[in-house]
Amino acid sequence: xxxxxxxxxxxxxxxxxxxxxxxxxxxxxxxxxxxxxxxxxxxxxxxxxxxxxxxxxxxxxxxxxxxxxxxxxxxxxxxxxxxxxxxxxxxxxxxxxxxxxxxxxxxxxxxxxxxxxxxxxxxxxxxxxxxxxxxxxxxxxxxxxxxxxxxxxxxxxxxxxxxxxxxxxxxxxxxxxxxxxxxxxxxxxxxxxxxxxxxxxxxxxxxxxxxxxxxxxxxxxxxxxxxxxxxxxxxxxxxxxxxxxxxxxxxxxxxxxxxxxxxxxxxxxxxxxxxxxxxxxxxxxxxxxxxxxxxxxxxxxxxxxxxxxxxxxxxxxxxxxxxxxx
Amino acid sequence: xxxxxxxxxxxxxxxxxxxxxxxxxxxxxxxxxxxxxxxxxxxxxxxxxxxxxxxxxxxxxxxxxxxxxxxxxxxxxxxxxxxxxxxxxxxxxxxxxxxxxxxxxxxxxxxxxxxxxxxxxxxxxxxxxxxxxxxxxxxxxxxxxxxxxxxxxxxxxxxxxxxxxxxxxxxxxxxxxxxxxxxxxxxxxxxxxxxxxxxxxxxxxxxxxxxxxxxxxxxxxxxxxxxxxxxxxxxxxxxxxxxxxxxxxxxxxxxxxxxxxxxxxxxxxxxxxxxxxxxxxxxxxxxxxxxxxxxxxxxxxxxxxxxxxxxxxxxxxxxxxxxxxxxxxxxx
Amino acid sequence: xxxxxxxxxxxxxxxxxxxxxxxxxxxxxxxxxxxxxxxxxxxxxxxxxxxxxxxxxxxxxxxxxxxxxxxxxxxxxxxxxxxxxxxxxxxxxxxxxxxxxxxxxxxxxxxxxxxxxxxxxxxxxxxxxxxxxxxxxxxxxxxxxxxxxxxxxxxxxxxxxxxxxxxxxxxxxxxxxxxxxxxxxxxxxxxxxxxxxxxxxxxxxxxxxxxxxxxxxxxxxxxxxxxxxxxxxxxxxxxxxxxxxxxxxxxxxxxxxxxxxxxxxxxxxxxxxxxxxxx
Lengths: 326, 332, 279
Description:
The complex is a heterotrimer.
Chain A: E1 9-20, E2 23-35, E3 40-44, H1 51-59, E4 66-75, E5 78-79, H2 85-92, E6 97-100, H3 114-126, H4 129-142, H5 148-151, H6 161-173, E7 179-183, H7 191-208, E8 211-216, H8 219-225, E9 228-233, E10 236-242, H9 243-248, H10 253-261, E11 306-308, E12 314-316, H11 321-325
Parallel strand pairs in A: 3-8, 3-9, 6-7, 7-8
Antiparallel strand pairs in A: 1-2, 1-4, 4-5, 9-10, 10-12, 11-12
Helix pairs in contact in A: 3-4, 4-6, 6-7
Chain B: E1 8-18, E2 30-41, E3 46-50, H1 57-65, E4 72-77, E5 80-81, H2 87-93, E6 97-100, H3 114-124, H4 130-143, H5 160-172, E7 178-182, H6 190-207, E8 210-215, H7 218-224, E9 227-232, E10 235-241, H8 242-247, H9 252-260, E11 310-313, E12 316-318
Parallel strand pairs in B: 3-8, 3-9, 6-7, 7-8
Antiparallel strand pairs in B: 1-2, 1-4, 4-5, 9-10, 10-12, 11-12
Helix pairs in contact in B: 3-5, 4-5
Chain C: H1 2-9, H2 11-28, H3 30-33, H4 38-41, H5 67-102, H6 106-120, H7 123-134, H8 138-165, H9 168-176, H10 180-216, H11 228-235, H12 244-270
């Protein structure tokens, strides 16, 4: 991975606020990440970290009372936040960017045949109907769905969870996108099915040169599937870098503590004391400081700058600020 | 098995779903959700029931609880047979077995306050003295780490973790001996799991409880349970001390299951073979091994004979005809 | 309070609520507002069909009675009938719906088929038929209306109970050993209450409207009852010159029904167990 290659998708200082009955909630706070061409980038974080909102912001499907208040989402050199809706609907969504949703049991309409639903996404883009169907069948073969021709005539409930997820992956790839966003596509699946799907995703990404943004709460999944990873906490992107580096030498205190909780890293039950702050009343500066064992008064003054480390690892923490200034 | 008699003995339980015929329709075969399961729970022990969706672990738990009536088999509680009766009678006879739901917030009636919900359990079981009810509720709230101000709050005002504790408190206030925990950590972040599991462990020791832990999460079961039973399509395929099973899994399914758990090892996707296909439906089960359609080691015999659970170590049993031929794998 | 803030944001619902409060106040204080009941019942034929003036705010009707006084006193009747009918309909429909929803088998089927029968007949026609059978008068009109409205409550409760039957918290109660009656009355009923309340507020509007129609048709309130519908019937012949005899009672009906409907719509969003608070 070359440091001077341009990212395919870059999120820079994105902040998203949602109006709720109880006030304004700042779900994302100056979040940043880069997706390099041909790589699988994981976004890992616990509940409330804003990873789903990040994905929605890219596609422009934030909740009705939500809006981006600062920052940019750059696809090439276009800022997706400023792009007209028509362009978003026709070119980006289901076009240049494919989306694999989280719940295979909810994402398919139960009253339509699978073929109808899949063809719907492609017909608007492909043109001739005959070609669209052939395309879909070859896609279904590439996601290793048994009996692809017969599958088109069946209804979603006739497929298992793993098969449905394959259908959704096929739908996401229908327009031959350059980028695929995957929103925890294996969370609702059994662990043995999850392994099948992860291997499939990896295979497809390598074969087609896809760039993928893979969101998950499971560090193990991200470790196995992804090349690079961003760790999020309470709407902030606290650390990014190659997966191997982050696992071997995590810099941010949250990353360290999160990894320590993983069963692979210790027989004893480890947790992180305290609870995540509410986005309605977030702590100032770094949002992790109330729970951080290395916190200092500086932490709440302002968000620490992002410092780059060797091997393309970057971290947002006052502990490393000195290095940035060096 | 020497030593104390088991508190709960389950023998050859079969639970069927569906079956019968629709009005003017074809008869449908019944689904064997639990297909001949036997186990024993000793007092103070924690047994984990592990398996993926459709394996029948929740059905088994509800059958043991009495919420579902078994179609065949025997259940003995402290030596007394409690099976073979209607659901209502079963719940009355097995009040010492209680069940904590997977989604504890949804298990609380949104209309009533926490205090009411907790006292109601006591009211149902005949504790008429208001003072005593209050005392027991306050004790239990304290035991799960909540203070008495929670009595006047409503379920939706509590966080998920607090709801979980209330759900626990509600059944513990009845002083059960056996507690069935259904996926107690599902939906919980790793950083929070430790706290919940810690509370559960502490309660077990403090109140001398016996746990039946239903979970798909192997690492949780490994940490919390002394014994574990692996289920596949309604049958137990391997059972024994959890350390043994995790270190030396013998059944091909157990091995596949353990291998599929995501590890913090980058690039390990290539090295791990995935189990092909999907589990078939239960109604096709019969005198064969239920796993043979996906098993890497399947041979002709597997389709002809139902493998019994045979001993492969100290209290460690597995159901496979080719156990000796499959190498044992030690965890790295 | 969250509930109050949310409610206040719904302007139509607040308007509806104010109308209802005003109506209740008028009904309660009608003897104070109209001190002289003679103006309601005894007319002075000399001053018949007078247009609205300083002395007779809403004018007089064909028998010389003060229309304003009649409208005010009529509000009491309207509210009484609406409350009685809705209460009766709830008393029949809700238990029927609970039973049919929670149990399976012949009993449940019987109740629901009975509901279907009642719903198949247009309400007004059923009300007319029952009223004719039982004789004229407000009492029979109320019974008839209750008979036409209970199926709506039954159906609403039935579908809510069916939904709740499989809810996790109901199953949890069964695990704890609760009896069926306990589950129904302590757990299912309160959670069904919101749907019932919504139906009831809309029902009030419906009942007032239908009572007025029955009165207009001569079935129901009998003269000299200042029932709004009856007043419209009596004043109909004098349209369009003496418009006030019909318009003001008509406005009374219109505003009342509007008020209940607006409020009922607002209540639907609001009555949610999640809005119960400990503080």
